[in-house]
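Example is below:
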Amino acid sequence: MAAGQETVLDDYAFLVSETDAKGNILFANSDFCKIAEYTLEELIGKPHSMVRHKDMPKKAFKSLWETVQKDQVWTGYVKNATKSGGYYWVFATVYPFESCDGAKGYMSCRRKASQKEITEAVELYKQWNKEEGK
């Protein structure tokens, strides 16, 4: 995949990852690995922010963290980066959970975002980035 190129998820793609309370990846399913272009071994133990795209405003992730740390579910549109320098858009649902061993963490489930949803998110994020001085 060429740097800067968009990867469009297929209609059935369902990207799942689990992190510890600090946001370090504990699990990633095969769809996530394939779209992000990383092996499971490359992802485990790394901060989930390793797939954060530079175009994403800080405000979006501040909202995400503030929401899940209050034990609430967060949903939103996210532009993520691939290993080769490309990107992909998802509609993400992130929720706090407790694993069977009692450890707290977060689960993120992501699906394809529609072109309309992406267009709206791009406009909103441009405005937020302008406010942040990006």
About this structure: The helical segments are 30-36, 40-43, 58-68, 115-131. Strands lie at 15-20, 25-28, 74-81, 87-98, 104-112. The mean pLDDT is 95. The chain has four helices and five strands.
